[in-house]
Amino acid sequence: MDTIQSDGYSIFFDDSITELFKFVEQGNYSKVFVLTDDNTGIHCLPLLQPHLVKLNSYDLIEITAGEENKTIDFCIGVWKMLIDFGADRKALMINLGGGVVTDLGGFVASTYKRGIDFVQVPTTLLSQVDASVGGKTGVDVDGIKNIIGTFTQPKAVFMNDGFLSTLPQRQLLSGLAEMLKHGLICDADYWDELKESDLSLPSAELIYRSVEIKNAVVLEDPHEKNIRKALNFGHTVGHAVETYSLLNDDDPLTHGEAIAIGMICEAWLSNKKAGLSTNQLDEVASVITRLYPKYEVKADSQAELFKLMLNDKKNFDGQINCTLLKRIGDFSIDNLCTEVELYDSLNYYAGL
Amino acid sequence: MDTIQSDGYSIFFDDSITELFKFVEQGNYSKVFVLTDDNTGIHCLPLLQPHLVKLNSYDLIEITAGEENKTIDFCIGVWKMLIDFGADRKALMINLGGGVVTDLGGFVASTYKRGIDFVQVPTTLLSQVDASVGGKTGVDVDGIKNIIGTFTQPKAVFMNDGFLSTLPQRQLLSGLAEMLKHGLICDADYWDELKESDLSLPSAELIYRSVEIKNAVVLEDPHEKNIRKALNFGHTVGHAVETYSLLNDDDPLTHGEAIAIGMICEAWLSNKKAGLSTNQLDEVASVITRLYPKYEVKADSQAELFKLMLNDKKNFDGQINCTLLKRIGDFSIDNLCTEVELYDSLNYYAGL
């Protein structure tokens, strides 16, 4: 698989660990920091360790695993450690982990001393196909997802499917939702391929194709002015459901589980407002419900979900702005949806 | 005085309040937020109020005045208020205040939803001649100055010398230090002019010239790769003294008072290492000591000052990197100074 060229940096697939340390050596960094969480510290760091010990010096910074820790408070902890370790402007941060580590680590690096270099080594399927391409960094404040962040490109991204074999099935399914989305918005053939594949461990080729699609969209519109909004399909409702679950459930939904619900709701809205045929709506709903467990969205939580949607970055002036599907493989941006339409879409999901 | 063109934005001098609200109207913003502190809320906001009430809607956010409050914790407070007020990506933030408000407000705006528009209305001499030109935003963590921040340009800057008449003399002197620096690094004629002027309230023309100098330097090197380091003259020692005073003194030094000390120390280093003549060293020391009160740097605090210098953003790999003067009106970047040389420069200041 060829290296993919993104906005000023490369995404490496083959021999990526070797490539990572070639990059580190050539960069002449004053210090190297590896950010992990308690899972990747155990399962993924060992793959890097033989190379790390050959460096003059490096430091490990570990955060607690879990979406609920992608907060500004954890950023403060990491900034303080960088200060204590004497990190200067020529330091490098290697973010080794899932979306929490890559989003938070990217934000910390992009603001420490007004920006130091960082690279992403995504270790979950979700972070490989989503968080590590596109230059978005972000953390949560008050439970509002990614409300604080920057647009900053990493210096490189290193993909390695060796990390995926240790992932629980639920984590794989979380990443798969974004892959399904890439097919739905841009590539009907890819959607068909996914439908027919064994998705218990997606192949390296399927992952590669997903990164290609996301990268192409992002390159066309790095600051989310127009076409990049395609990637928001499923995310208006999905993000609200995800935040709601994080605040209310003992065992909250994963990102992908929430986006799966969002894609069904927004496919329903697509059928009402953007031309998606009823046949294709049925197909989307049936593929997704087959893969993901049913979640109960209680009727009395709908108002809270709507309030969360109003907080979404893409919404202006009290209106809810959705990306919808014209058909499988093609999207339509800037569809304004009313409160009632959004409730109806949630009712459609509840009735499946 | 003509409008100065900076990196993609304008710095208005004449009729700047009128220009500000012309800008607001043309921007078609979803909401306008005015960030003040408890001083500017009383002394400066009234100048904006007649125009503000004509807007459809605006909200005030007030932070507590004082350098010690330019912290990440106050940022969190402002982010939460923006969330509560429902600020979306098309909101505008007007930062009305001194460097604390413009630096912190710029950082908050540049990271809220990955960046909303902001404009600077600097109300102190220091923020007019320094903080509002150059696109640096920043806040402190653990007492380390500006350790977190971004390079983000405001959409415009509005200067108004009407704000300065309410400033205490000590605040005016704080800004004056940066003006003296602009002369020392780039313009010997301007230094001579300053020497001969009544500096109890610097004229609008002197302020304008200072902004011109800073703007020219910044435009040449927006990301501080080389020539912009000129602006760090006096700031290696000065920042350390400022932080030390903030942590240890009941009535801490102002920024300019600390930079005044830094400029004397670094003029001494310039004489040792960069070619500044002894005559010119004497001239710099005598002009500055005439304007600023003497501060006692205790011998046993020197080690702590050195540790603070090591934390400075410009220092790599344990070496202290100073911008020095070749002569009055010309600078030399990237001079590495040893611990002993820095102690000697502090001893020179102490012996004046």
Summed up:
Chain A folds into two domains: 4-166, Rossmann fold; 169-350, Dehydroquinate synthase-like - alpha domain (Dehydroquinate synthase-like, alpha domain), CATH 1.20.1090. The first copy, chain A, has 14 helices and eleven strands.
Second rung of CATH, namely the architecture of the largest domain in chain A: Up-down Bundle
Largest sheet report of chain A: 4 strands, parallel
Distance between the termini of chain A: 40 Å
CATH homologous superfamily label of the largest domain in chain A: Dehydroquinate synthase-like - alpha domain
CATH C-level of the largest domain in chain A: Mainly Alpha
Radius of gyration of chain A: 20 Å
The class by helix and strand makeup of chain A works out as alpha/beta
Number of domains of chain A: 2
Number of strands of chain A: 11
**Largest protein interface?**
A-B, 36 and 36 residues
Q: How is the CATH topology of the largest domain in chain A named? A: Dehydroquinate synthase-like, alpha domain
Helix proportion range of chain A? 40-55%
Textual characterization of the structure:
The structure is a homodimer of 352-residue chains. By secondary structure, chain A is of the alpha/beta class. The first copy, chain A, folds into 2 domains: 163 residues, Rossmann fold, CATH 3.40.50; 182 residues, Dehydroquinate synthase-like, alpha domain (Up-down Bundle). The first copy, chain A, is 49% helix and 16% strand. A 4-stranded parallel sheet of chain A has the order 4-3-5-6. A 3-stranded mixed sheet of chain A has the order 1-2-9, sandwiched between helices. In chain A, strands 7-8 form a two-stranded antiparallel ribbon. In chain A, strand 5, helix 5 and strand 6 form a beta-alpha-beta unit. The longest helix of chain A is centred in the last third of the chain and has 19 residues. The mean pLDDT of chain A is 94. Chains A and B meet through helix 4, helix 5 and strand 8 of A and helix 4, helix 5 and strand 8 of B. Chains A, B: It is an enzyme of class 4 (lyase).
